[in-house]
Write a structure and sequence with these properties.
This protein has about 750 residues and is of the alpha+beta class. Among the domains are: about 5-170, no CATH class; about 290-460, no CATH class; about 600-749, no CATH class. It has a six-stranded antiparallel β-sheet, with helices on one face. A three-stranded antiparallel β-sheet has the order 3-4-5, with no helix packed on it. It is flat.
């Protein structure tokens, strides 16, 4: 006779009844379903498939009701996202498996079972995941205890105990874990340059496809803040351009059409300017190497489509007599795509007359024909590895094709689409990245025969990418594979997003723009990705809430420069750079003089001294090379001409910054037109253009004025400088020999 439920069991039943009575908060499913959407499933712990199909894989009836009630509670009470609920459900499934093993109910859980559960988490998971799962466990037990469902008091562990963190250091440690080091980010660039051809020539679609996919996704992740999972639902595309003109300056911005999630619509995502060439290369690569899989996806969607529609823009060298306006067989399509060109067991197919382009009509594969069926599908397997439908004897080529198409499409959830957990999806035939089974071969390539060149979507590309950023799952990370220490160099896929967001916040991007750039529905979400120090945040607040604008003659830092000019800037050694270095990083390697984005302030004596000292070094080097020039050495002549122009820019700037007619605090910029500069007065109310008197650099040893109306004399602002240069050159002993070989060595050094 079954005993009556005690008060703890009654409280648990009441909790389930209350949650079940609420309006059901999950779309496209019901309470009775085994799977709630694509990410929540009530299976035993360790179940890896995307959906439960047989009841033996389920939790017990009692456990399922408790788990479902808790999911509803999280969704209704805390408005937790479905994906986050699925993560919390993992630890509940683990806990329930331990309870089932002990043959006890959740109401009687004790400290020993709790510790066993925590130990299993520590064994199976590491890092942030382990810490999170400990927190999820505690939250679940605290929820049940608050409702009177637990009969025993359990001393819960501190959430960060296993990670070796104290509460006082928690924010700092979390930021360290979420932000990758700059050397790891630099390593991703080094690996990309090794794996991807920089020259732009086409890459073989089979060669090193997995590593190249990882590198391309790393590049996309560094080009703009994004969720890595969203890469999987991008469509095949090229970068789009938008030209903007502001105060006569023309700028080009580049965008990717991005699929929004978590409450945002699809939108054009701005690409980091320095990453544009790399992203162009990535999009071109994906466009080329993923096209065979897109063609197969179109075929599996409608095998009767004409060949012209299947191929699209894909170029086939030889159609072998096939009509573009008619449909083709799978075998003919495989022949056109080159699947049989380098197949190890293709000799087996020689018995089929005319294969693959004009196969014998009605040809029957006698018996089971494992070898022939394997060769047809580009694999080498045993009978029991074939799908059951293909183990049938005496099948025709058409029947084998039909069974194969059914097999592939039935193994791709949501076919002909790939669907994100947020409900957005992309047609596989239009996806930016989609691969054949032969391209991304792993030890466990998805469904049965998933390694076939005729297979598509046999791997979860997001998981394949994420797992190869560290050694925890894949065994060999992309970093270790290319010579980096696997312990020191590792990432999680989401760290890219934290890195890019934090860099943007440090660069002064507004919170509204940052939220839009990152694809967030709310500005409030920015704080999750903000890993600036307290000092950095206080400085930003001080800039925003400055009580009133004061007149600053000579600014001492970028904050005062912005107050003076209204322009956000970065402090450089010779002035202030007003280029947005985060969106469009500098390519001049701190060689600021001559750049139209570099502002120099009259009266900044320290900056002027550096400019003058730099010019002295350049003058000395030019004078030495000048003595060694000859008509036979084009490299030396080109070098001399280029660096003479650069030295002239220094002279032009120095002339303005030392001209007594230019007031203290004036802001000076090059206009981009020869040596012309724009001088803005100290109050930043008006500007004039200033064309300095330049020197003839046919001989750097004795410079002469060749333009302008200013007479030579003691009032000449360059007279003292010219004398200084002359004396410096005369006193300097040449460090190089006069031979052409030594000139070349000097220039290269």
């Amino acid at each position: 006779m079954k005993s009556l439920p005690n008060r703890f069991e009654q409280a648990l039943e009441k909790f389930v009844v209350e949650m079940r009575a609420l309006p059901f908060p999950f779309d496209h499913c019901t309470w009775e379903d085994w799977n709630w959407g694509d990410s929540i499933r009530f299976a035993r712990w360790g179940y890896r498939k995307s959906k439960i199909t047989v009841s033996t894989d389920l939790l017990s009836v009692e456990q399922i009701d408790i788990a479902k009630a808790y999911c509803v509670y999280l969704r209704v009470d805390d408005l937790i996202h479905v994906n986050d609920i699925s993560k919390k459900l993992v630890v509940i499934r683990l806990l329930f498996s331990i309870l089932k093993e002990r043959k006890v109910s959740i109401t009687t859980i004790d400290h020993q079972i709790y510790e066993r559960h925590i130990a299993t988490i520590g064994k199976e998971y590491s890092g942030h995941t382990r810490v999170a799962f400990l927190a999820y466990t505690n939250l679940f037990l605290q929820t049940l205890n608050a409702r009177g469902c637990l009969s025993k008091q359990i001393k819960l562990r501190q959430v960060f105990r296993d990670a070796g963190l104290s509460n006082s250091t928690l924010p700092h440690k979390i930021a360290q874990r979420k932000l990758p080091s700059e050397k790891v980010i630099l390593a991703t660039g080094h690996i990309f340059s090794q794996v991807m051809s920089i020259s732009g020539e086409p890459l073989d679609y089979l060669d090193n496809a997995m590593d190249r996919m990882i590198c391309c996704n790393m590049a996309l992740s560094l080009a703009a803040p994004e969720r890595v999972a969203e890469i999987q639902i991008l469509t095949k595309q090229k970068l789009t351009e938008q030209v903007s003109e502001n105060n006569g300056e023309r700028e080009i911005f580049h965008f990717i059409h991005w699929r929004g999630s978590k409450g945002t619509q699809d939108f054009p995502k701005l690409i980091h300017q320095a990453m544009v060439p790399t992203i162009q290369r990535v999009l071109e690569y994906y466009s080329d190497v993923c096209e065979p899989a897109r063609i197969l996806a179109r075929y599996y969607e409608n095998p009767q489509d004409p060949l012209s529609h299947l191929l699209g823009s894909y170029i086939v060298d030889d159609l072998h007599g096939l009509n573009l306006d008619k449909s083709v067989t799978l075998w003919q399509l495989g022949g056109l795509l080159g699947f049989y060109d380098e197949m190890d067991n293709k000799r087996v197919l020689r018995g089929i007359q005319g294969f693959p382009f004009v196969p014998e009509p009605g040809y029957v594969v006698k018996g089971v024909g494992v070898a022939t069926k394997s060769a047809l599908l580009g694999v080498n397997v045993r009978k029991n590895e074939l799908p059951l439908a293909l183990q049938v004897t005496d099948l025709t080529l058409a029947e084998i094709e039909g069974h194969w198409v059914s097999w592939v499409t039935s193994n791709i959830e949501h076919f002909p689409y790939r669907q994100h957990a947020n409900g957005k999806r992309v047609r596989l035939s239009d996806a930016l990245l989609v691969y054949t089974g032969k391209q991304l071969v792993t030890t466990g390539s998805g469904y049965r025969l998933g390694k076939s060149p005729f297979a598509i979507e046999s791997l979860n590309l997001g998981d394949a990418f994420s797992k190869r950023l560290h050694d925890r799952h894949s065994g060999t990370s992309i970093f270790r594979k290319y010579g980096f220490d696997g312990e020191e160099y590792q990432l999680t896929s989401h760290q890219f997003r934290h890195f890019i967001n934090t860099q943007a916040q440090r660069g002064g991007m507004s919170e509204t723009i940052l939220a839009a750039w990152s694809g967030r529905a709310s500005v409030a979400q920015n704080v999750v990705y903000d890993h600036r120090s307290d000092d950095e945040k206080h400085a930003a607040i001080a800039e925003i809430y400055e009580p009133e604008r004061e007149i600053i003659v000579i600014p001492v830092d970028e904050v005062e420069f912005e107050l003076k000019t209204g322009k956000t800037a970065s402090k450089m050694s010779t002035g202030y750079c007003i280029q947005s270095l985060y969106i469009n990083p500098c390519t001049r390697l701190n060689n600021c003089v001559g750049c139209t984005k570099s502002c120099h302030v009259k009266g900044d004596d320290k900056a002027l001294a550096l400019i003058e000292a730099d010019l002295k070094v350049q003058e000395a080097r030019l004078s030495e090379v000048f003595q060694l020039l000859s008509d036979q050495n084009r490299i030396a002549n080109d070098w001399f001409r280029l660096h003479t122009e650069n030295a002239n820019r220094y002279r032009a700037l120095i002339e303005v910054l030392t001209d007594p007619k230019v007031e203290e605090g004036a802001v000076v910029r090059f206009t981009g037109e020869a040596y012309k500069l724009r001088v803005t007065n100290a109050n930043v109310t008006e500007s004039i253009e200033y064309t300095p008197l330049l020197m003839d650099q046919s001989s750097p040893v004795s410079p002469k004025k060749i333009t302008g109306e200013q007479a030579q004399g003691e009032n000449d602002p360059l007279a003292a400088l010219n004398a200084l240069i002359d004396n410096m050159v005369e006193d300097n002993e040449s460090p190089i020999d006069s031979s052409l070989d030594d000139i070349q060595q000097f220039l290269e050094g």
